[in-house]
Design brief:
Order of helices and strands: HHHHHEEEEEEEEEEHHEH
Largest sheet: 4 strands, antiparallel
Number of helices: 8
Shape: elongated
Distance between the termini: 35 Å
Number of strands: 11
Oligomer: single chain
Structural class: alpha+beta
Strand content: 5-15%
Helix content: 40-55%
């Protein structure tokens, strides 16, 4: 009881087991055949009659049912394992966020603080800022506007942006939400903090190393090097969730003035550097583990696809596997 758009071809089973057909239409050779018949650049499409003309393997009904039952069982097992691994990745992301948030608002954990020659378990004081809470007593709180400037990035013509990296166009173009393409010149000569200013994800914070082109969909924050470590400041601003400061309109917008009015915790520069180094090391560990899990998920997805192809095309005989 569904309605589907014209972007789909509706296939109604006839003289074929529906469960078997569902797997046959996911099989890699069939999918590649649909792709090969698709035409168009910006929106490739294949009409329904061409889809209907693609041949599929068709064993007898009993074997169709056996294949479908086997694949139901095995793909469910794989999907369950994939789901568990993705849950683990989400927990790692949550742990990463919590680690950054706690460290930039409360300082280093005792062992890391002692190693860096910083106060261990320092007393705390109210920051007077709701999102920040209590901070170490020896930290200051400062409005960014006293030690920073904020400007819009520069416009770049669409024709100058290539969607893919090439030898000629190897400079990343940074828009409001990250890399949006590549060009052959740069307007970023030094590491800078870049904040997305337009769109649903405005408020995203990027620490950009040159060469790069920063577009006018982003804000470039220039700070006093005697007051802020850029990497520490990037972590603080990510914790702040600047998206909350944006106008809630059809096209959310955040201004440099609003960002510069934000008050943030300011430890001494050596402590900022120690916090940034600690976070770099710890988040790298979490990111490496998450990457390994994502790679395992991709291998499982590839195995799933290969298993469907092998069973549907008769490369493996599963008639005696269903009952096992």
């Amino acid at each position: 009881n569904l309605i589907v758009s014209t972007g789909f071809a509706v296939v109604r089973p006839r003289n074929v087991e529906p469960a078997f057909l569902a797997f046959a239409l996911r099989e890699s050779v069939f999918v590649e055949s649909v792709v090969a018949r698709s035409v168009g650049v910006s929106y490739p499409a294949c009409n329904a009659s061409e889809v209907g003309g693609i041949a599929i393997p068709l064993p007898d009904p009993a074997e169709q049912r056996a294949i479908a039952a086997f694949l139901d069982r095995e793909t469910n097992r794989i999907d369950t394992l994939i789901a568990k691994k993705r849950e683990l990745v989400e927990r790692l992301k949550e742990k990463r966020t919590a680690l950054i948030s706690h460290t930039v608002t409360h300082g280093l954990p005792p062992e890391a603080a002692a190693k860096a020659g910083l106060p261990v378990n320092p007393p705390f004081k109210p920051s007077g800022i709701e999102w920040l809470g209590d901070i170490p007593k020896h930290w200051d709180v400062m409005a960014l506007k006293w030690r920073s400037r904020c400007r819009s990035g520069d416009a770049i013509a669409t024709d100058d942006v290539n969607p893919e990296l090439t030898p000629e166009r190897g400079v990343p173009v940074i828009g409001g939400n990250g890399v949006m393409g590549y060009c052959d010149s740069s307007n970023c000569e030094h590491p800078v903090l870049v904040i997305g200013r337009v769109g649903a994800l405005c408020g995203n914070v990027h620490f950009i190393k040159p060469p790069a082109w920063i577009t006018d969909n982003a804000l470039v924050m220039c700070t006093d090097a005697a007051t802020f470590s850029q990497k520490y400041l990037a972590a603080v601003l990510r914790t702040r969730n600047l998206n909350e400061l944006a106008d809630k309109t059809a096209q959310p917008l955040i201004t440099g003035t609003r960002i510069r009015n934000e008050r943030i915790p300011v430890p001494a520069l050596p402590e900022q550097a120690a916090i940034a180094a600690y976070l770099a090391a710890e988040t790298t560990k979490l990111d490496t583990l998450a990457t390994k899990i994502e790679e395992a998920v991709e291998r499982l997805r590839e195995f799933r696809a290969a298993l469907i192809t092998a069973a549907v095309t008769g490369k493996i005989d599963v008639r005696n596997e269903v009952a096992s």
